[in-house]
Amino acid sequence: MQMKTPSFLFLTVTIIMMSACKQELPIKYPTTKKADTVDDYFGTKVPDPYRWLENDTSVETGDWVRAQNELTNDYLAAIPFREKIRERLTRMWNYPRFGVPFKEGPYYFFFKNDGLQNQSVLYCSKGLTGEPKVLLDPNKLSRDGTIALSETSVSRDGKYLAYSLARSGSDWNEIGVMEIESGRVMPDTLKWVKFSGISWEKNGFYYSRYDAPLKGMELSTKNEFQKVYFHVAGTKQMDDLLVYQNLKFPMRNYGLSVTEDERFLILYESESTSGTSIWYRDQTKPGMGFRQLAAGFEFEYGVVDNIGDKLLVLTNNRAPRKKLILMDPSRPEPENWQTVIPECDDVLGPVTLAGNVLVAEYMHNASSKAFLYSLEGKLLHEMSLPGIGTLSGFSEKKTENTAFYGYTSFTFPLTIFKFDVSLNKSEVYNQPELDFKPEQYEVKQVFYTGRDQTRVPMFIVHKKGITLDGKNPALLYGYGGFNVSLTPNFSLSRLLFLENGGVYVIANLRGGGEFGEDWHKAGTKERKQNVFDDFIAAAQYLISEKYTSPDMLAIMGGSNGGLLVGACMTQHPELFRVAIPQVGVMDMLRYHKFTIGWAWATDYGTSETREDFDYLFKYSPLHNLKEGVQYPATLAFTGDHDDRVVPAHTFKFMATLQAKQKGNNPVLVRIETKAGHGAGKPTSKLIDETTDLWSFVFYNLGMKFKE
Predict the structure, then answer these.
(1) Residue 92 phi/psi, 5° resolution?
(2) Can 641 be counted among the known catalytic residues?
(3) From the candidates 150, 199, 559, 695, which is the catalytic residue?
(4) pLDDT score for 22
(5) Is 489 helix (H, G, I), strand (E, B) or coil?
(6) What gap in Å lies between CA 195 and CA 599, rounded to an integer?
(7) CATH number for the 79-91+436-701 domain, one of 3.10.105.10, 3.40.50.720, 3.30.230.10, 3.40.50.1820?
(8) Mean per-residue pLDDT over the chain, rounded
(9) Which of 231, 520, 649, 677 is catalytic?
(10) Is domain 97-343 given the CATH code 3.40.50.1360 in the classification?
(11) 122-174 pLDDT, tens per residue?
(12) Would residue 649 show up in a list of annotated catalytic residues for this protein?
C-alpha cells in the first residue's frame, strides 16, 4: 500500500496557524496497513494487526519508517526555536569531560572527551606524572562516530588492552586486542560477543559469546546458549578454549571473572536480570572443575575478591538490603558464613578493597554514603562526600593507598576525586568548567504518599524563587524496575529545561532498588501496577502542591521507563500534556520472543501462563489504547539497531496510537538510524536527539525558549 506523508509546506502552514490561532489543527498521519492477525490467549482473542512491523528488515517496514520520520522531521522543523535550542545545546556540550582513572601494571588509564568529540578517547600514562598519550581513539573508526567502545580491560601486567566495539548502538560486540607499549593493534577479532565482560588471566582473557545468528535476523532473533571462552592474546578466535556451556538450559547467561591475584575463577549463572547462581574454580588445584558456591536464582551473589583461601561475597540472601560475608569455598553453606558487614537500614553495595581496607558504598534515601572498614569488619571512618549526590566508578588496587572516584549531583557536574585511603582524605583531581551557575538552582527531596499509603521519595529540581501557582512547566521522570535505582546526577540535557523555568522531577518508584530487594519485588509481576500507581501519585502530588498542572506536565522514561510512560498515559491520559516514551517495552504479550527479552520474566512474567497473561493484558500499553480518547502529545523515540528492546514495540504502539487518537494532540515517532538502545550514541546524535526532545516538549507545553 502506498504510504503518503504531508509535505513540509503543509506542516509549516499548519504550525504557523496553530501559533496564530491558539488552536491545534489535525496532522495527516501515514496510512499503516492492518492485517487480520489474531492470537488466542486462554480463550481471549487479541488482535495484532501491525505484527508485520516486527520484521525490521522488510521493505514494507523500511517504507513505514521513512514515512514516519518524514512526518516527524517536518513537524519539528517548523517549530520556530528548534535551531536556537540546537545552538544552545551545542555550546553547553562543548567542555572537556574526564572519566575516573584506573591502574594496571605501570600505567594509569582514563577517558577524555574534548567537548564535541563523538566518542570519548582512551588515554594512558606511566604513573600519575607521566605524559598522557592517546591509546585508542574510537572517533577514527567511523566517520559518523557510530562505532563506540563498550568495554575495556587491561591485563594485570599492563601489557595488553582488550576492548570491545559496538556498531550503531547494537548489543553485539566485537573484541580486539592492542599491545599497550607499542600501540600496535593485534590481529585478534572476536565476533558475536554480547552481554560479556573481559577478565584477564596472565596473557589471555575470559569472555562470553553466542553462536552466529542467521543472516538478516541479527537484531531480532532470540539469544540462546551463551558460552564462556578463553582467548590467548595474539591468536585466532577459532582456537579459543570453550570453558563452560550448558546445553540443558538455552535461556541462561554465563559470565566469568578472575580475582585480583588470579587464584579463583568465579562463574556467574543467571536466567534473568535478578538472582544469580555462582561457581568457582581454584587455579592452585590442577584439574579441578567448577564447583557450586550458591545454587538457585532467588538471591544475588557478587564476589568482591578473595582474602587468602576465602571469598568476600556481597549478597541479599537473608538480607534484602545486602550484607558482606566471608565464605569458605570448601564449606559454602549459609550456616558456615562469617558476616563481615551486616545488613542495616541503608542498601549496601558496591564494596571494594583498597589499601587493605574495605570501602563500602551505601544508598541512603537514593543518594550515596561511604564508609571504610577493616578486613574484619570494624568501622574505621565515614568518607566525606560533597553533599547529597552519587559516588561512582571507585577505582582502586587491593594493596595500594591511592584510589579515585567520581561524584555528581543534580547541580554538581561529574568531578573526579583522588582519595588517600590511609588518611581518609579526598582532593579534587579533575573538575569540569562549564557555562552553569549552580547557586541559581535548588534541589529538594520530598516523600509523598502512594495509592496504598506507601511513602515514596522524589527529587524536585528548579530555579530558586519559583512561584507555586500551578503554572510551571514540569517534567516527571521515572523507571521503576529491575532493581535499578535513580540517584542524583548532572545532565546537560536537563539543564536546558531548568534554565528555561522548568521543574524537573525524578520519582524513586517501587520496582527499583532504592530500598533493597523488598522495594524491588513490590513492583514486579502481579505487583507491577504499584509502579504505575506510584508514578501517577507523583504527578498528583506535583499538581496538588501547585508545582504544575495537567496542562503543563510532561512525563518521560526509557526502556522499562518507556513502558512506565506508555502504561500511565493510557491509564490516565487526562493527567499529562506531553508524553515521551523512549525505547519502551510496549507489547507485554510478546516481549519475551525477541533477543534477550526472555530474561525480563522475573520482573514481568510472560503471557505463556494464564495468571501472568491476565495482569499483563490489563496494563500492556499497546493493548490498552482506546478509540475516542485524547492522549497526550506524544513523541516516541527508538533506534533501528535496538536489539535490546526491539523497535517493533514502538512501531506497533505508535501505529495504534495514530489510528485511535482523538483530538489534535500530535502523536509522532522519531526513529534514529544507526542507533540502538542508547549506549555508545555519538555526541552529534545526542545533540540532535535532545534538540528534538526539548523542541517538542517546549512547544507543546507552551514554553518560550530564552536564549
Answers:
(1) -65, -40
(2) no
(3) 559
(4) 35
(5) coil
(6) 12
(7) 3.40.50.1820
(8) 94
(9) 677
(10) no
(11) 999 999 999 999 999 999 999 999 999 999 999 999 999 999 999 988 999 99
(12) no
